[in-house]
Amino acid sequence: MTDPLAGIVVIAWEQAVAAPLATRHLADLGASVIKIERPGDGDQARHYDGAVEGMSAHFVWLNRGKRSVALDLKDARGRALLGGLLARADVFVHNQGPGAASRLGLAFEQLSPRHPSLVQCAISGYGPAGPYRDRKAYDLLVQGEAGVMALTGSDAHPVKAGIPVADIAAGMYAFSSILGALYARQRDGVGATIEITMLESLTEWVTAATAVSMYAGREPARMEARHSFIVPYGPYHVADGFVNIAVQNESQWRRLCADVLASPDLADDPRFRTNELRLANRDALEPLIEARWRDVPKASLEALLEAADVPFGDLRSLGEVTRHPQLAARDRWTETDSPVGTLRTLLHPMNIAGLSRPRTRIPTLGEDTDEVMREFGLADAPAEAERFRPTRRAVP
Predict the structure, then answer these.
(1) Hey, what domains does the chain have and what are their CATH numbers?
(2) What is the pLDDT of residues 293-349, one digit of tens each?
(3) Buried b vs exposed e over 250-281: b needs ≥16 C-beta within 10 Å?
(4) What is the per-residue DSSP string for 106-149?
(5) Which class for 141: exposed (0-12), middle (13-18), buried (19 or more C-beta within 10 A)?
(6) 150-172: per-residue pLDDT in tens?
(7) End-to-end C-alpha distance for the chain, whole angstroms
(8) Half-sphere exposure of 41 (CA within 13 A, CB side)
(9) What is the spatial distance between Cα 318 and Cα 339, in angstroms, rounded to a whole number?
(10) Cα separation, 151 vs 212, whole angstroms
(11) At residue 242, what are phi and psi to the nearest 5 degrees?
(12) Using CA atoms, how far apart are residues 141 and 198, in angstroms rounded to an integer?
C-alpha cells in the first residue's frame, strides 16, 4: 500500500520527547518530517547521554526517519527561511518553552492568516492560559501535578513511573489529533490549531483514580507493584523470584483457588468472595498466597497457572526484553542507519497491513540543511550546524 501520509510535509520545531515522539510516528506513516534545530547544539535530547555508541538513547528512539535542518530563529534570516518552509508545509509542530512561539511570530494567530490550510500543533506543559501557563514543565513535575505519583511507590516513598509518561501521553495525543485534523482538512480544505498539554494528557490517564476520589471520597492506596483496585494482581514471591499474576474476574479467582492454590474453599471465604472484599482484606489474602508459593519454583507455578488459564507473566530485565521470544517471533526488530553505523531498533507498533518498512536513519545535526533548502527553492542557505561526526561503528 502507499504510505498513508506520503506527500505530507511536517515542520517540527521540537526538542526532548513529546513533539519528537509525535513527529516520529508521522514519519513512520510516510510523512516527510523536517526537524528544525539550533545551530551548534541542536535538540537538547542529543546530549542526554552517550549510551548508543556515543549517541543519546532518547534521540535514537525519537528521531529516526527525519531530516535535520539547522536554523538560527533568533536571526531574521533564519526566521525568513522557516517561513519559506512553512509556506509549503502541511503540518507545523512545536514544543518550545512558554511564549517562545509568540516571540518569534510563530503562534497560531500569527500563522493562520498566512497559512489557512496549515495544521498547527503546539505542545506545552500547562497550556497558554491559567496560573501555570508560564511554568516550565518536565516529565517528573507533571507526573506529580497529575497525580501519577499519588498512585506509585508507597506512602513513605512515592516514585515516578520509570518512563516519561507525561511526555509520551502528550506526544500520542498530538499524533492522533494531527491525524484527525489532516482527515478533516481533506474533507473541508481548512487547517486546524491544536493545543496539547502534558498535564491534561496525563490527567486523562488517571481518570479512574480521580473518579474514586471524587465519588467514593477516598484516595486510592499506593500499592507499589500491586494494584489499587484489584486483588490478587501483581508480582508475588516464589522460591526463585517472582510471578506476575492478574486475576480480572471471579471465574479466574475460582480457578486460581481450585487449580493453583489447591484450596477451592478459599473462593467462597466470606473475606474473599468478591474483588471488593478481597481488596478490603488484602492484608490477609496476599500473605496467604505468598506463603503457599514460598517454596514453589517459578517454572512449576507458571505451568499450573497456564493449565488453569489464569493470566500470568514474567518480570523481565531490560536485557531480557531485547531478547523477548515474542518480539523475535513477530519480527519486531529492524536496522536503522546512524552517524555511528547500523543500529538495531524496534519497529513502530502501528501494524497496518501492507505498510512499508523502509530502512530509516537518524540525522546528524543540520546534515540536511542544504538539501532541504534546495528542495524548497531556498538554495542560498548554507548549512549552519556544527557537524556531529563520531567514528562510525556497526553495532551487532
Answers:
(1) 9-205+323-375 (3.40.50.10540), 233-315 (3.30.1540.10)
(2) 999 999 999 999 999 999 999 988 889 999 999 999 999 999 999 999 999 999 999
(3) eebbbbbbeebbeeeebbebeebeebeebbee
(4) -SHHHHTTT-TT-EEEEEESS-SSSTTTT----HHHHHHHTTGG
(5) middle
(6) 998 888 888 999 999 999 999 99
(7) 31
(8) 6
(9) 25
(10) 12
(11) -135, 155
(12) 10
Three-class HEC string of 313-366: ECCCCHHHHCCCHHHHHCCCEEEEECCCCCEEEECCCCCCCCCCCCCCECCCCC
What is the SS3 string spanning 208-257? HHHHHHHHHCCCCCCCCCCCCCCCCEEEEEECCEEEEEECCCHHHHHHHH
Burial class (CB in 10 A: 0-12, 13-18, 19+), 166: buried
Residue type at 166?
A
Enter the C-alpha cell of residue 314: 514474567
Residue that is written with C-alpha cell 477451592 in the block: 264
32-37 and 9-13: which strand pairing? Answer: parallel
Q: How many CB atoms lie within 10 A of CB 393?
A: 10
Rounded distance between C-alpha atoms, residue 23 and residue 4, angstroms: 14
- Report angle CA 310, 315, 316 to the nearest 5 degrees: 130
Which three three-digit cell numbers place residue 236? 508475588
Which stretch of DSSP H or E encloses residue 192?
strand 192-197
Task: Say which of 58, 94, 157, 227 is annotated catalytic.
Answer: 227
Starting at the edge strand that comes first in sequence, how are the strands of the sheet with 241-246 ordered?
A: 233-238, 241-246, 312-313
Query: Is 227 labeled as catalytic in the residue annotation?
Result: yes
371 CB contacts (<8 Å, ≥6 apart)? Answer: 67
In the chain, helix, strand, coil percent, each to 5? 40, 15, 45
Beta bridge partners of 37: 70
Euclidean distance between CA atoms 171 and 197, whole angstroms: 9
pTM of full prediction above 0.85: yes
